[in-house]
Design goal:
- By secondary structure, this protein is of the alpha/beta class.
- It has a single domain, classed as Ribonucleoside hydrolase-like (Inosine-uridine Nucleoside N-ribohydrolase, Chain A).
- The chain has twelve helices and twelve strands.
- Strands 3-2-1-4-5-6-12-9 form an eight-stranded mixed beta sheet, with helices on both faces.
- Helix 1 runs antiparallel to helix 10.
- The two termini are 21 Å apart.
- The structure holds beta-D-ribofuranose and calcium ion (CA).
- The site of calcium ion has 8 residues, from loops.
Length: 309
Amino acid sequence: MRQKVIIDTDPGIDDTMAIMLALKSPELELVGLTAIYGNVSCDQSSINALKLLEIAGRRDIPVAKGSNVPLFIEPHRYATHVHGEDGLGNSNLPVPKGKVLDISAAEFIVKMVLKNPGEITLVSIGPLTNIALAARIEPGIIKLVKEVVIMGGAATVRGNVTPVAEANIWQDPHAASIVFSAGWPLTMLGLDVTTKIIQTEEYLNEIYLANNTATNLIKAVMPFYQNFYFKRFGSKNIHTHDPSTIAYLLNSKLFTVKPIPVFVETEGRCAGQTVPDFCNQWGTQTHANICVEVNFQGVLDLIKKRLMN
Ligand code: BDR
Ligand code: CA
């Protein structure tokens, strides 16, 4: 049986690659995309989600629009300097014809989990607001979700938006705190591993040779992202953030995982920090499966093979 997946996303250039990777993977059944603010507003990210599915010829997959703001704090800036004003590298892709569902992202998540008990994997590649809201609307889903797989956080390395915080957690630390402490099986792919999986220009150019819908789409959105990396790090090599979640679903053996309680700081200058309590000194009951190491070549080979197929 194919693994049922909902991707909660703020497309987003690396989100685009993650979604295409999921669509190219026959083991996965993408039952819906739920849109969240983050890289852009949720108004824009839901349009982008529709766009990506239409270009991929998958109008059958529903899109639910989520929250435009974090749970309690004032919204931070969007990451348009990383992903472009439109979130898709200012690529001017065609305006989508389809519409979002008439229920919210959180309601869609609840509905699908209740309908498919024990079968839905929630993949989060944006701020965690929608998923926290879903758990608040219907706490019963916590026992019914198969797994929550998160791109976010930094357990043993520095942050990427503050010295300690990764962007997705920083955007809504309260939501992240709810999600990390809920008690469902949760796997965290943070900067600890995603920054070790490096896609060079040469690697991307090889992928583009496939000249299929997915690779052409990635080729259209990617230059803006590469230019951001060039400005920040002096090289057009990019990190593999969001696609790592899908690689994990396809072959978890590529990652070394440790069950460790994770505390999310919600206040002050360390807001958004994911603190691993390695020796369980705080006595927390819930553990996150933290990916601490990765077979980066294995992940790169997997992504390339799938996208080029
Ligand atoms: C995360 O932040 C966003 O900009 C990316 O899409 C990814 O989800 C990386 O920190
Ligand atoms: Ca993202």
